[in-house]
Request: fold
Amino acid sequence: MSISQPWIVVAILAGAASVGVATWLYVWVHRQEAGTKKAQEVASWIREGATSYLRRFYLALTRVAVGMGVVIAIVFSFDIGRLGTEAINIDPQRGGGMGSSFCDRRDMFCYRRIHGHDSCRGRQRAQRSSGK
Reply:
């Protein structure tokens, strides 16, 4: 028997026990006497108010859930791998994108350091010409 199996059995038994206790309490409460006429009238007012509150609460909750569902559906409908590549003309094969200006400067620095002058050919040509 695996170490996690006893906890599963305990969880299932605890769940079954809680459902049993809830059922017993429900039956016990409904067997009790309803009370006087005045108590029943007050209980009906409370029931009416609670029903009205719960109706409005669940309506608001439904609106929030649907709104969040729409937002989540829109967000997850984007292709994250290609998000924004068409708008800013990124070519992933050439290493373009947000960091390209930094890489271009770094390549130029490497070429200038090796050859002593500026060139637009970048680090790859500098490494080829130096034999690295």
